[in-house]
Amino acid sequence: MIATIYRRFIPQLLHIIILPISFFVFMLIYTPSGIMEFLGHEWFGVHLTIMSSIILLSVCVSRILYYFIPMRLNYTLYVFWCFGEIIFSSFFVALYLWLVLDKPMPYFDMLTTSFKYLFLTLTISYAILTLSIRVYDYHNRISENMDTAVRRMRFYDNQHNLKLVLFPTAILYIQAEENYVNINYIENDRVKEFVLRSSMKALDEICQDHGLVRCHRSFYINPARIKVLRKDKDGIMYAELDADDVRTIPVSKTYYRILSDVL
């Protein structure tokens, strides 16, 4: 889930903008004990502005790397990523202060001090951002699922004749077979199959618009109907559905990540 959320541009942009601003505002308003004397009263605002700019650039580099480098993070690993982001910013903030401030202080002592202030001021901002984005995404997904559930899927054949109308929640899976597709669905608690003269490519848009996910070159599957994903002794992945007397659906390595992200 979190891997999908943070692949989006807006969550990354929010972190890049809000983290340095929150640091600047917190330090300016609350001035934690000793920070004013440490930076100096006369140049306090200047140092604070430059430190905030360093945080902005550091977070920007980190978020760009996360955005473009393929990674799968759960919430535990994401916490470590944020912690590493604070350490990364602290290195450059400490370097700036060590070079500019006229203090007989070893660099690593300056790093410890910088990390302390950054950790204390940014942790709350990280927590608020993460919770806010998670709540927004949760409500957005519920809204999308509700909209999708009430809209019917209309299946047309190669001649553009309407052949079948179903609620997305009724569909189990769709299988391509030569010049036809087999649409397997539930009706009156019974599994039924409808053979439609069409191609899988022609159904790509309607399937994606209604929440079905491609799990194999020849299969679209309804993720809401998946009971379990399992791997057999040969290492082949299958999806078991929540309906009786329904075949297991193969899941190829190409589409496994996409499917697992929506479960």
Strand order of the largest sheet: 5-4-3-7-6
Distance between the terminal alpha carbons, to the nearest Å?
Answer: 8 Å
* Contiguous uncertain segments of 5+ residues: none
Q: Estimate what percentage of residues fall within beta strands.
A: 15-25%
Question: How many whole angstroms does the radius of gyration measure?
Answer: 26 Å
The helix-strand sequence is HHHHHHEEEEEHEEEEEH
Which whole number gives the mean pLDDT? 86
The beta-strand count equals 10
**Count of helical segments?**
8
Anisotropy-based shape: elongated
Map the helices and strands:
Blueprint: H1 2-5, H2 9-30, H3 35-39, H4 44-68, H5 75-100, H6 107-150, E1 153-156, E2 162-166, E3 171-177, E4 180-187, E5 190-196, H7 200-209, E6 213-216, E7 219-221, E8 226-231, E9 237-241, E10 249-251, H8 253-262
Helix pairs in contact: 2-4, 2-6, 4-5, 5-6
Give a verbal description of the structure.
The mean pLDDT is 86. It is built from 8 helices and 10 strands. The strands form 3 sheets. The chain has a 5-stranded antiparallel β-sheet with strand order 5-4-3-7-6. It has a 3-stranded antiparallel β-sheet with strand order 8-9-10. The chain has a two-stranded antiparallel sheet with strand order 1-2. It folds into 2 domains: 147 residues, no CATH class; 110 residues, Beta Barrel (OB fold (Dihydrolipoamide Acetyltransferase, E2P)), CATH 2.40.50. By secondary structure, it is of the alpha+beta class.
